[in-house]
Each structure stands twice: as structure tokens, then as C-alpha cells.
Amino acid sequence: MQSAEPKNQKSCLVATLSRYTSAVRNMEHTIMLPSLLRDVPPKEPEDTFAAEGNNKDLYEYYLMLKSVRNVVESGLMPPDERKALSAPLETLEDSDPETLFHFHLTGLFSVLNNLTTSSHVLTRRYKEVIGLSN
Amino acid sequence: MQSAEPKNQKSCLVATLSRYTSAVRNMEHTIMLPSLLRDVPPKEPEDTFAAEGNNKDLYEYYLMLKSVRNVVESGLMPPDERKALSAPLETLEDSDPETLFHFHLTGLFSVLNNLTTSSHVLTRRYKEVIGLSN
After folding, report:
1. Which residue, A39, A128, B15, B50, has most beta carbons within 10 Å?
2. Is the preceding omega at residue B45 within 30 degrees of 0, hence cis?
């Protein structure tokens, strides 16, 4: 019963990936001079990336959003660059596979939605920087 | 450069999902009487699910593999049933989004590949139970 129309329903994950690549594409088309974002700090609270508490400028966020988009579009892990988490994740390995599956799928949706929002925010911030926002 | 041929390359994640649903479909077609798996414990070391250290029988694994397949095919989170991890994951929230993205994507590939193997193993175990393996 639950598995009816698998192809249509599968589009939900694809749609999330597609929304992200679309947001980054729009960001790229808008931001003609990415270097103008150098040394521009994120604003709080409206910038979604401001919560991370690091010192990246908006140019670095721009590069990060494009980098993630490339991975989304390739559908592959970066071969030699799997960024390790320093978190104590031994407990994850003890989880049953179904829990682990839900955890990573939920996490992937969540991070992709956040990155999509970040792409929109970065696009808007660029327009402010070049004086187009008012 | 890296984002060339996005649609072809995107099939990699789709292919992983597809391999899993295919393995479960084959399992379902083979296992005509799932109840024969009740009270049959996993074997070590060849059964991938044996490492989890719990007391599930193969029938419960059969149901779990089908349950995950339904979520894969729907592409959605289970609405009221997001299984919480008891792991201390606060550190994850402090990770930068790119690291988090790689973490969840790598994790999703890994758990799907493990579940695919489990589906094959469970299919083989059923054949043993009904005396078809020799």
C-alpha cells in the first residue's frame, strides 16, 4: 500500500535537490562579481549562516554553496575529501540500520533546505552590496 | 567544470536507491512465506545484521527492510515516526553545513549499501530455511 506510485513519490527527494541547485543557479546568475562579497561578514539574525559562529565572509559562503551544489549534481561523494566530523559518533554505529537511515535522510533534507535558504539570503545580500536592494 | 552532465551523474544516488528497492523486491518475490523466518536468529559472521547485537529474528529484519524500502520509494520522511537517536549529537549542530551535508550523504550511501546487502543475505537465508540453498 505505502509503496504505490514509487516513481512519482520519489520525486520528493529529487525536488529538494532540484530546489537547491536552482537556488544556487539563480545566485550565480545574480552575483556577477563574487569578489565584491570578500570581507563582507554575514548579518544577524537574517543570515542563516550567521549562526555558525565562525569568521567566514560571504565570498567563502558563496564558494561553499557552489561546492555543495557540485556534489549534489554529481550525486557522488568527493573521492579524496570526505570531511571528517570530530563529533563522538561511536553511538551512531551502534544504532539499528533503520534508525540510522531515518537519521541521515532527515539530516540530508534539513541541511539541503538550510543551504537553499542560504543561497537565497546570499543572493539578497549581494544585491544590497551593489545597491540594488532598495 | 565539476558540474558538467548533472543529470547523468545524479543517477548515482538514484542508482543506489534503485539497487536497494530492487534487492527488496527480489527478497519479497522469493520469500513467499515470511512467517517461516519467525524465531530464526541471524547467523554470524555472514549475516550483516548480526553485528547489531540485538535479539531480532529474521522476520523482524524482513519487516524492517520493507519498511525502509517504503520510505525510499516515497522519498518522504515518515510523518509521525521520526525515530530519535539517543546519541549526543549536539556537536553535529555546530558543524558547518558543508561538513554536515557530506556527513549525511556519506551516511545515507553507507546505510543503503548495508541494507541492500542485508536484503540479499535475508533472501539467501530464507532459501536455506526452506531447503533450497543446496
Report:
1. B50
2. yes
What pLDDT shows up at residue A122? 87
Q: Which amino acid is at A29?
A: H
Q: How far apart are CA A105 and CA A109, in angstroms?
A: 6
Alpha-carbon distance of B89 to B97, in angstroms, equals: 15
Mutate to test the interface with B, among A49, A100, A118 (most CBs of B within 10 A): A100
Per-residue pLDDT, B7: 46
Count of CB atoms situated within 10 Å of the CB of B78: 15
Residue ranges for chain B with pLDDT beneath 50: 1-11, 78-82, 86-87
Contact B23, B119 (CB under 8 A): yes
Q: What is the pLDDT of residues A82-101, one digit of tens each?
A: 455 544 555 666 677 888 88
- pLDDT attached to residue A29: 94
Separation of CA B10 from chain center? 20
Interchain proximity B91–A91, CB inside 8 Å? no
Q: How far apart are CA A60 and CA A122, in angstroms?
A: 11
Pure H helices in chain B = 6-30, 58-74, 90-93, 97-129
Instruction: Select from A9, A52, A91 the Cβ nearest to the Cβ of B87.
Output: A91
List, for chain A, all residue ranges whose pLDDT scores fall below the cut of 50.
1-11, 78-82, 86-87
| Placement of cell 544556487 in the chain | A24
B75: left (phi over 0), alpha (psi -120 to 50) or beta: left
